[in-house]
Structures are given as C-alpha cells and as structure tokens.
Amino acid sequence: MKKIACIFTLAVSVLELSAQTHPRMTAFVKGWGNETIVIRSYDYKASYTEHERVKAENGKVTLDIPHQLTSVTMWAERDEIPMPDSLKQAWGVGTTQAYSIQAILMPDSALSISGEITPRGLVYHASGSDFSTKFAEIENRCLPHRIQLDSLNALIGFVQGKRFIELADLCRKQISLMTEIKKEYVVNHSEDLLSSFLLPDLNGKDFVELLPSIPEPMRQGIFKSQIDKMENYWIQFQKQRMGKTSDLVGKTAPDFELNALEGATKKLADFRGKWVILDFWALWCGPCIQGFEAMKVYYGENRDRLEIVGVACNADQNELKKMVEKKELPWVQLMCNSEKEKETMSDYKIVSFPSKILIDPHGKVVLTYIGENEEFYKQVTQLITD
Fold it and tell me: Out of 25, 114, 232, 262, which residue is the most buried by the measure of CB atoms under 10 Å away?
C-alpha cells in the first residue's frame, strides 16, 4: 500500500513539475545565420522587461520562457538603427521595426516561428495557437509602414527644429496607418481574443468607441489588466487634456523632494511665491522635445513672474545632461527615477508625457494639461494676468 502511495505521489509531483516547466519558443529565420540576436521579453504579470543577447545557430533561436503571458521582440543586432544615445528610445529608436519579430506567448501554449529576411522586411509565420498565427498576419500587414519608420528613425535623431517636426509628423502618420490595420481587425472580429489584445493599441477615440463591442468574457479575460489600464488612462487623459482634473485642480499641490540635475535637492516649496509650471517629460518622448522651443520662448517672456520646473522621468543623468545642454534649457531640471521619486508622478496623476501642471503663487493647482499645444500657453497667460 505504501508503494502505491509513493508511486501516486511521484506521479503527482511529475505532473506538477510538468505544469511548471517553461514553454519553449523556437524561431527560425532564413537570413539570421549565426548572428547575435537581441531579445526583449516583457512579463505582463510581473510588469518586468528583460533584455538578453544570444547567438543564432544557422538562423535558429530557442528560448525557455516562464509559463506566463509574455511579449517577446527579437531582432538581429546588426539591424539596430544607429542613433544618438540621448534619443535611443525615442520613436522606437535603436530597435528595427521592419526586421524584428513581435510575438505574444500565451501561458498555455508553446510558440514556433519561421521567417525570412526579404527586401520588404522580416516576413514570418507563427504556429502554436490561433492567436499567434493571426497576430503574425497582422504584423506582416504592417511591414510597409515599419520599413518607412526605420528610414525615418535613422534620420530623426540627427536633425533639429523644423526638420525634426516634419519627420516626427511622418512617424506619427506611419504609426497611425498601422493602428488603422489593427482597428479594422477589431471592428470585424470583436469576439476574437486577438481583438481584446489589439484594442488598447488603438487611439483614444477608437478605443472608447469599440470597447463596448468586446464581449464581457473577453474584457474579463487574460488581457483584462491591459484593457482596464487603458480605460482608466483615457478617462484621466480627457480630464487633464481639458484641464479638468477635479481631484487636483483647486487643491494644494503635493510637495516633493527630488534631486536636481546640478546636484542639489529641490522641493516644490522652494518655488513658493511665483507661478510654477511643472513639466513632466521623458528623454524618449518626441513631442516633449519638440515642445522645448515654444516653452523657451514663453519662459523668456514671463520669467519675471513664472518659473518652469522640468521633471525628467526615468532619465539617465548623463543623457539628461546632454539633452539639456543640446537644447539649451534655462530652467531647473529635476530627476524622477527611483521608486520613491516616482510617487511624485502618482501624486500628480501623470498618465502621459508631456504633462504640465500650473501652480499658483500660493501653492494651489489651477490647471493640468497633456501634450504640446499653444492653447496651453494661452490658458496660462489668461490665468497669470487675471
């Protein structure tokens, strides 16, 4: 009887171990040869991104990935786009769009990818689940626009002023065209699991309009957290975009203590007595950088009664210094990097970059705004001159 019990226990242990083993992802790409392959994986459950580099063996890469919902992007190191370090993450910089594999590994399935490097990009097919197969088809449809993005990304880091704005607009156009492809799928296949994954990638207007078409079981399914996050984001975005974030406006601005680029520690209270614009931005944010010129002009015209305080989020200090010097930004720059410092972003309900908070001389929030638009400065002028 004890022998039977031991055998049963061993069988259960083997089954449990089998359930916990990592699903294997295999990719074979004709044209990779023995190149170094860069792999970026994002664990949705842990909200953790990991980068690694592996050598392909005759075009083949095999990975052990945790048994969880994971996003994987792979590309050959040789295909990375050379860009200045200060803009390495802007517009997808550094990561080739057209010669990379984008895949979602579901918790209950393995994934096999086969592809080929062609003049029109990396064309690939996926098997392992219906979801993966359809997602690869969507990605292949986006290839012409990814080719254009690669060309634009190779230029945008080396230009400034009007040319930068022109290239940024062209980038947004290509991204918009890819978004239309995803929207078309969601509209025609609203009950499909892939639609619940693609939905958060749509623009705000389309997301809000199409969300009710997603069946409740799908909304509450494996991509629930992504859908909920985007729904909350757009609610907050619309409020802030119109300067109507009721739970901030009219209240005392949350104080903070952040390290300045120059080394000193600064508090919000240090600026009491003047109007203050808190500018939350990031090095990878193209619109943030694009807006500096207009901000410098406005600051020059109003610096006797108004102070601008830049809050650079998740920024390497050396790269931040290069950007500030390159753009000749005359106002103080604070760094918001550590987990404790990021509480400042939470306190000010920052959901997008750039985000601006206008605080009056008494320390009260009077206006919040998302984006770069001359309308913001018109509203500020009206408020500080009343």
Answer: 25
